[in-house]
Amino acid sequence: MRLGLFYIAAMTRTVPIDLLRGFIMMLMALDHASGMVARTHFTEMWGVTFKGYPDFWWWLTRFVSHLCAPGFFFLMGMSMLLFAEKRLQTGWSEGRIRTYFFKRGGLILLFMFFLEFPAWGLGGFLGSGSSGGGGMSFPGAYEGGFFIPTTVLYGLGMCMIIGAFLWKLPKWLLVLITIFSFVFSGWYVGQQSVTEVFNPLEVFLAVPGITVGAMSLYPVIPWIGVVTFGMFWAKLMREFPGKIYGYSLVIGLVFVATFVVLRFLELTNFQMNSYHDWISFFTLIKYPPSVVFILITCGINFILLFVFSKLSNQTWLRPVRLFGQTAMFFYIVHLYLYALMGAPFPAGASIGVMYLVWIVGLVVLYFICDWFLTFKRNKPEGSFWKMV
């Protein structure tokens, strides 16, 4: 009886998490439709010239997608802690839980190599090879040769593996790791020259860029702090289940206000400090995540978490929650879907057409993900499909 009540309470309190994850999955699909259908994508990288956004609508399209990566890492931290708690209640040992996180983190890395990379290759093959907007410009010296590319799945997979050792830490230590990750990242990247030859370990661990043997957009150190803060927040959820979403609203507003102050003072955005209008004010370094980038994106995510806590019983949000419950499956399938849907537009579509294709794609994804969730639920606890 006690375990049943625990399970029901856990399910109730995690509905807003599923909704937020599903919502940012939809925004991520918009960002990738931008690249695969409109053939326009932006990369706000430290140390290199950023060309800016063509107009307001392209800026807005990119800005809302900035919620995705911080949201993924934060919610992964929350979900790891809540998953571990639930499994401890059902008799799992701490070692078994760590092994699960090792396996799932490793599986994410395998998905990157064997499922995600072919999808990006398909999208590039079906396009003309052009990339409008900001294009892709990387810090680091590279004159050709072999390198291992990585994507957001690298950051998520590695952070899950490392997080297997962190979820039992006390709250104060999780917060300390979060602070250290951003202080160290800001200091270390600030010491680098954009034209130097990086050590491959630097690229995989601390400095987004390219070098012989490595290319990374999501190195581990800048992002592990978002994961540990998610774990910290899940611990607060355990202690204050009736108040946590109210706290989310408060911390979200504090984060946004702090962002405004720091950005106004032209602080903590790496080399892109100056601004001349409100769009450039909101043009922020994502690779690695600057402090102001994290403040505004996590602040908005916290506010959305509060909003979804108030809407968690709304049946019209079922598709959003469904996407959140099938996030990894959604991620892989949506890449292939939008790569194929972009085939009629090898030179790129207008932003209006791209939005239409994005919406049609979400409808298709709803039915595919609905089927997969039913399929997944019918599998036994130890099944491979439970980790997808």
Give the spatial strand order of the biggest sheet: 1-3-2
Spans of at least 5 consecutive residues with low confidence: 1-11
The largest sheet, given as strand count, sense and whether it forms a barrel, is:
3 strands, mixed
Mean pLDDT: 92
The succession of helices and strands, N to C, reads HHHHEHHHEEHHHHHHH
Q: What characteristic shape results from the CA principal axes?
A: globular
Proportion of residues in β-strands? under 5%
Q: How many domains, as an integer?
A: 1
- Count of alpha/pi helices: 14
Q: Output the structural class.
A: mainly alpha
Describe the structure in brief.
This protein has 388 residues and is mainly alpha-helical.
Describe this structure in words.
This protein has 388 residues and is mainly α. It has one domain (2-387). It is 65% helix and 3% strand. The protein is built from 14 helices and three strands. The protein has helices spanning 2-36, 56-65, 68-89, 94-126, 152-163, 171-190, 200-205, 220-239, 244-264, 278-281, 291-310, 318-325, 327-341, 351-377; strands at 147-149, 209-211, 213-216. Strands 1-3-2 form a three-stranded mixed sheet.
What's the SSE blueprint?
Layout: H1 2-36, H2 56-65, H3 68-89, H4 94-126, E1 147-149, H5 152-163, H6 171-190, H7 200-205, E2 209-211, E3 213-216, H8 220-239, H9 244-264, H10 278-281, H11 291-310, H12 318-325, H13 327-341, H14 351-377
Parallel strand pairs: 1-3
Antiparallel strand pairs: 2-3
